[in-house]
Amino acid sequence: MLEREEKEGRRGATMTLSVLLAGRSKKQRHGCRNGRQLQEKALRVLSCHQNLDELFREVGSSLCNEALISDNSGRESSELLLVSALQDQAAALGLPVGILSARMAARNVEKISAESGQATLLKGEPREKLSCLLSTLKDLASQNAFSPSLFAQEMWKMQSPLTLDIAWQLHREGLLTLDELLENNLDASASVDWLCRDLCLLCSETEGPSLDAEHQGSLLTGLASVFLRHGFQKTSEPGKKSLSPKLSKIYCAVLERMLAWLLDSVAKEKQEGPSSLKAAKNWLHVFTVSAYQGLVLPEALQDFFSQTLTQVLTYNPQLKVSDAIPLQREWTFARTNAVLTLLYRKLFVPFRPEELVRHLQHVLETSEVNWHHVLSCVSTLLVCQSGAAPLIKDFLGHLLKKGFEDYDLESMMTAFLIARQAGLEGPAVFMPYSEWFKVAFGSSSGFHSSSKKASVFLFKFLSELVPFETPQHLKVHIMLPPFVPGKYRPLLLEYIALAKTRLADFKVSIEDMGLYEDLSSPKEAVQPQCQALQDVEKAVQIFENTGRIPASVMEASIFRQSYYATRFLPALLVPRLLPERPDPRMALIDSLRRAEKIPPNTYKAYVEECRVAKEKLLQDGSVEMETSDLKEPLELLTAELEALRELIVNQDKQEELPAQMARVSEALAGVFGPTNDQEEIASVDFRIRLDLSVPEVPQQHQEAVDLLLTAFCKNVMSASYFLPPERQGPWASLFARMVCGHRQALPSLLSRLCQLIHHQGSSLRDAHIIGLAVLTVHLNEAKASIPAIDLCSSLDPSCASMRGLSVTQLWDYFLDCQAGESVTFCMKFCVVALSYFLCKFGSLPHDTLCSLLHPGFVKKLQYVVPLLCSESRNTSWEGSMDDDLPWKILSLPNLCYSKAALCLWKHPLFKELLQEKAFQLTFQEWLLVELAVPSDEDVLSAAERQEFHYWALYQHFLPLPAADGGCEGDLREACAVLLDAILDFGQRGSAIHTSRSEFGKCNHPHNPKCSTFQRRGNPDIYARLQEMLLQLELERRRAWPASGGKEEPLLFRVFQKRLKGLKSGMAVGEKMHRQQELLLQTRILLGLPPSVLIAMRQKGKEVALDCEDFFGFVNTELRNVCSRGCTLSFDITAHFFRGLLSASLECDKPAQEVTALLTLCQTRCPIILCSAARWWSRLEPVLCSEWKRLIDASLAKGLQNLRALQASISSFLSSEAAFLMADVPWLSAAFLHFTLQQQQTMPERMGKMLKRLGPGAEQLLVSLLFFSLMDVISVRIAPQEGVDSQKATDWSLAVLQRLNKQNIHWLSIFTSTRPAQGPEQILHSAASDQHLKLMPIAFYSLLSAFDSSQLTTDPNFLYVAVDQYTQLVQLFMEGTTEMAPSLREPSLCTKEPEEPLVLIRTARRFLLHLIPRCPQGSFANLQQLLDLCGLLDPELKAALVDLGGLLDEEPLLF
Length: 1454
What we know:
Blueprint: H1 2-13, H2 17-30, H3 35-48, H4 52-59, H5 62-68, H6 72-93, H7 97-116, H8 125-142, H9 148-155, H10 164-172, H11 178-183, H12 188-204, H13 210-231, H14 245-267, H15 269-272, H16 274-282, H17 298-314, H18 321-327, H19 338-348, H20 353-366, H21 371-384, H22 388-406, H23 409-423, H24 433-441, H25 452-465, H26 471-479, H27 489-505, H28 528-546, H29 551-559, H30 561-572, H31 584-594, H32 600-620, H33 631-649, H34 657-672, H35 678-683, E1 687-691, H36 699-722, H37 731-740, H38 745-759, H39 766-781, E2 788-792, E3 802-805, H40 807-814, H41 821-841, H42 846-852, H43 855-868, H44 887-890, H45 897-905, H46 908-913, H47 923-931, H48 942-957, H49 971-988, H50 1011-1014, H51 1019-1043, H52 1051-1060, H53 1068-1087, E4 1095-1099, E5 1102-1106, H54 1108-1116, H55 1130-1143, H56 1150-1164, H57 1166-1190, H58 1197-1214, H59 1225-1239, H60 1243-1251, H61 1258-1277, H62 1285-1301, H63 1319-1326, H64 1329-1333, H65 1335-1343, H66 1357-1374, H67 1396-1410, H68 1422-1429, H69 1434-1444
Parallel strand pairs: 1-2
Antiparallel strand pairs: 2-3, 4-5
Helix pairs in contact: 2-5, 3-6, 4-6, 4-7, 4-8, 7-8, 7-9, 12-14, 12-16, 13-14, 14-16, 19-21, 20-22, 21-23, 22-23, 25-27, 26-27, 28-30, 28-31, 29-30, 33-34, 33-36, 34-37, 36-38, 36-39, 37-39, 39-41, 41-43, 41-45, 43-45, 47-49, 49-51, 49-53, 55-57, 56-57, 57-59, 57-63, 58-59, 59-61, 60-62, ...
C-alpha cells in the first residue's frame, strides 16, 4: 500500500498542484473518508518532492481556485500545505519562515519582471503569473507567514530592477505599500532614479489597445495621488500620521524631475522628434484635477499645482530679456507647443483668474524666470480665461506705477514684455501694443508726466531697449510718441533720432512706412512695395465703407509726398482691365483725381495703359476675370472650423475649445489679412459703414463669411441635438468674440447678415434662422468689441442720419415687422433668439440678465405675437415656472413657430421681463409700427386688422397702467399719445429727423412704395384717431352742463409741448426741423373735424366761443410759416371759418358769437383777417353755403361786413365809385392790396387808384405800404410763391411816393421795436418774424430810388435810417442768406441782381450823403444814434458827431 502511494507521490511530483489536489479530492470522495489522514499523507508526499517557486505561483492560480471553490476545506488545505512546506524548508535551512517566504516571493517577482522584458506594463502570461503570486502572498499574510518589510528588503537585492507595474499592484493589494518599499531602500537617490526611469518608460509606451492606455493613465494618476498625498501632506493635520522627511523628499524630487523631463522634451522637440514629445504628453495625466477627487485634499492639490506652475515659470532661466524681445511673436498661444499650452490649462483649473495673476506677479517679483514660459503662460491665460484681460491690464498698471515710483527698470521691462505678448493675441483678446503704449504714455495723465525725473527715466529705459528692439516696436514709439511737456521735448527728439538710426541699421525707413502698416502685427515687416499694395487695398476698403478719401491718404499726399508719389500711387495705378461698372478702386482713383491728388499726366498715362492692356488681352483672346487665390487659406479655415465642431459635440473636450478657437482665429486672419493699423484706429474713430438697402460684401470675402456663418449654424444645430443651451459650454461666446476681433471681417459679416436677415429672411431655412438668431444673441454679448456702425440707405433717406449705432441697435433695422412675410420671419427670429437667451442665461441674476438682453427682441415679439396668434390676446392665459421654455420645441424636426411663440408668451420668465420698463412695448411704439404698415402688403385682411386695432387700443393699451406703457383708462391721454406718434412718424419719414423710438426703425426701406407712407402713414390709424376724438366730443357734450368752465385743450397742448422741446436756434437744420413739425401739425388739423379748433367756455349761463389756444398757436407758430409774409394758407383759413360756424351751434346766439369772435380777431389774431382778405373770393361761397346748411338764417354781421368790404373795393376798382373806408383801415388796406394782386392791375392804374382814395386815407396808405413791402421781401425768401418781383417793387414805390407827396408819416412801420400801441402793432403781429427781420433790406432798396431831400423833412428819419442801416450790417455779419436777392429779383436802380455788400455800400453812401442835409432837430437824440452805430461803422459815427455839434472831452478813437 505504501509502495503504491510512494509511486503515485513520485508521479504526482511531476504534476501541477491543482491536478494533484483535484485527484486527491476525487479519491477522498470515493475512498478514504478521513480528512485528517488525507492531509497528513499529502503533506508527507509534498515534503519529499517540493518545488517552492512553483508552489508559490500555483497556490493562487485560477485553476486551483476552480478546483477547490466547491470545498472551502480544500483551500484551507492548500494554505496549510504551503505553510508546511515553508516551515520544513526554513527548518532545513535554519531560516525564519518570514525571510524564506520573502526571498521566494522576491525570486518569483524577479522572474516575472524578467519575462516581461523591457515593457513597464505587464501583459499576457506575466500578468497572470503576477495575479497568482499576489493571491498566494495574501494567503501567506493571512497565516502570518509573510513579512512586508522583509519582502521590501529582498526586493532591493534583486539583480534585475523591479517593474513599476508590479510595485503598484503590490501597493494596491495592500501587500507592500510604496512607502514601505521606499523606506527600506537606504539609497534615496536610487529610489528617485528608479521611479523616474520607470515613469518615463511608462509614458513612452504609447502604442497598444485602448485598455492598455486606460491602464497606463490610471497607473500614472494612482502613483501621483500617492506622491501628492504624502509629498504635500500638511503637518498640522490632526489624526494624520506624519510621513518621514525622506519619503516627502523622494516624492517631491520625482515630481520635479518628471516635470523637468516634460519641459526638456518640449524644448528639444525639433532635435528629438515628435515621439519624445508624445511620451512626455502622457505625463499630463498627472495634472487632471478630476482624477484626484476623494484621494487628495484640495489644499494639497492646490499646493502641488501652485508649486508646479512656479517651477514651470522659473525652469532653466537662461534666456535673457534681450533674447526674448525678438522671439515673442513665436510664443503666442497658437504657435506655442500644444503640450506646453495644455500643461498651462491643466494647471489653471484649481485657481481663479485673480489667483493666477497674483501668483504670476509673485513669481516675477521673487524669482528669476524663463521668459519663454512666462510669456507663453500669459498668452494661454488670456486666451483660455475669459476674465483675465482686465486683470492683466491692472497688473500692467501696477508694474508701471512701481517702475516709476521706484525707478525700477525690471518692472518696466516686465510690463513691456507682457503688454507686447498680450497684444499679439489680437484685439479680441487684448488691446494691441500700439494702443497700450498710447494709452500708457500718450497723454499728460501718464506716470512719466509727473516730473522731469520720470520723463528722463522713461526715455533712458526706451533708449536702452533700442539695440534689441524690432522695427515694428520702434515704429510704434516713433509714430505714437510719449507725451512730454514742451520743455522736455529734447528728450523725445533725442530718442526719436536714436530709434531712426536703429531703423536705418535694419534698412527700414519711416518715410517708406505704409499708411496702414499694422504696428502691432506679429509678422515680419514687409518690403515697401508689398506694403504699398496692402495700403492700396486698405484705402480702397475704407473708401468703399465711408464714401470718402481716407484721411491717411490725404495726409500722406501732403506730409509724406515721397512715399505717396513713389510707392502708393504706382501701386494704386497699376494697369488692369477696367470693369464696365466702376468698382471701388476706380471710384477712389476718380476722387483723388478730382481732388487734384493725382497729376494729370500720371492719370492720363494710367488710362492709356489700361486701354492698351485691354486691347492686348482682347487680341490674345485671354480676357480673364481677376480672382483672389484664397483656396489655400479657405481650406485651412474649413479644416479648423470642422475641428471646432468636433470639440463642440464632445463634452469631454470642452477644455480644448479656447485653444481651437485661437487656431480658427489665426486661419481667419490668413483669409482677411492682418488687423487694421491701430494708429488709424487711434486717430480716427473707426466705424463700420453699412448700406441697409443694398448691402455689399466684397467678392473675395463672401466665401469666407459664408463659411463662418454656415459653420456656426451647423454648430448650433449639432450642439442642440445633444444638449440644451445652458449645458453647451462657452463655445458660442468664444466664437462671437473671436469674430469681433477681426476688424476687416466685421463689415463683411454684418453686411452678409443684413442680406440674409433683412432681405432674404423669408426664404431662410429653419436651421439658418436658428443659427443666425443665436449668433445675434452672442454678438450682443460681445457688443463692447464691435465698433460703432453708420447706417445708410439709398432708398430711405431717414437712415442717412443713423450714425454711431451699436450692434444691438442694428437688429432693429434688420428685422422688419410691417409687411408681408417679413412679419412671420420677425416672429420666428425673435422667438428663437429669446428662447435661446432665456435658456442660456436664465440662471443669471435678474439685473445681469436684463443688461445682456436686447430690448428690441422683446418689443418686436410683443407686437408680432398678438398680431399673428390671436390666442395670445387672452390676458387670462398664464403659464407656470415648471413649464419648459420653447427651445425644446424649436429643436424638434417638425417645429411649429406658433406653438413655440405661445409657449414663450405665457412663460413666467417672459412675463418677468415685461415688468422692466426697458422691455415694455409702449403705446407710442406700437403706433409707430402700425403707421408704417402698407395697406397693400398687410399680412392681415382689413377686418382682421381692424379687430387687432380694437383689441390693442381698447382692451390692451387703454386700460394698461402708465408705468407699463399704457394710458390708465384716460381716453384724452390715448389721443395725445396717438397725436405724438403720428407726428413722430411724419418726422421720421423726412430726411432731417430720426425717430426717438428704438423700435421699428427704417421701416421697409427697400420698398419703393414706402415713400407714400413716410409723411402720412397708415390711414387706418387716422381713422382710429378720428373715432377716439369723436368719442371725446360726445363725452364732452354729455358732461358740459355739469362740468362748467373752459375745457382743457388737447390738440394745442400736444402741439405746444412738442414745439417747446425743439431747438429754436438759427441753424438751418433747426429751422427746417421746426417748419417740418409745423407742417405735420397743420396736416393733422386739416384731417380732423374743424370744430376741434374752437373751444367752449362758460359765460354766465351761456356758452361762449373761445379761440385763445388757436390764436396763440397761430401767433407764435403758424405766423412764421405763413404765405406772403402775413397770410395763412387757404386750407387752414377755410378750416378755421368752418370750425367757427360749426362750433357756434353750441351757443344760444350763433350769429352774435361769430361776429364777436371776428371782432376779437382784429386785435388778437389779425393774420386770420388778412388771410380772409387774400382768399375771400374762394372763401365766401364756402362760408355762405356752410352758414345756410347749419343755421339757415341771415348771415352774421361780422361776415356781412367782410362781404360788404370786398364788394366796395371791387366797385371802387371797376368804376369811378368812391372808396368806402371801413372802421379798420388796415383791414381795408389788406382787402385792397390782395384784390389788386389778384386782378393783376397795371402800375399806371395803381397810381390813379391811389389818387382817388381822397382825404382820410393816411392810415390806409401806410398799411398798403406795409403789405407791399411784405411782397418785396417774399420775392427774396420765397420766390416759389409766384409774386412778380417787378410789380411788387413798382407797387411799393407808388405807395411810398403817394405817402411822401401827402406828407404822411410812414416811418413807424420800420421801427426796430414794435410800437406799444396803434395800427403798427397790429400790422407787425400779422407778419412773420423773418419778414420783419428783413425790413432793412426793403427800406434801403426803396430809398435808393428817392432824392434824400424829399425824406429829410421828418426829424425822425435820420434815427430810423441809422437804425435800419445797423440792422442791415448785422444781417450781413450773421450770414443771413436772404440778403442775396433771388435771380428773379432785379435791383431797383440797375435792374440787375445785386450783392449784399453792394446794398450795404449803397446804404452807407446814402447815409453819409443824408447826414449833412438833415435839420438840426434830427440830432436831438444823438447819443442814441451813436449807440446804434457802436463799433459797426466808426466813420459813420464820426460823421454824426461832427455834424451833430457834440463836443467830447476825450478824443475819438476812430
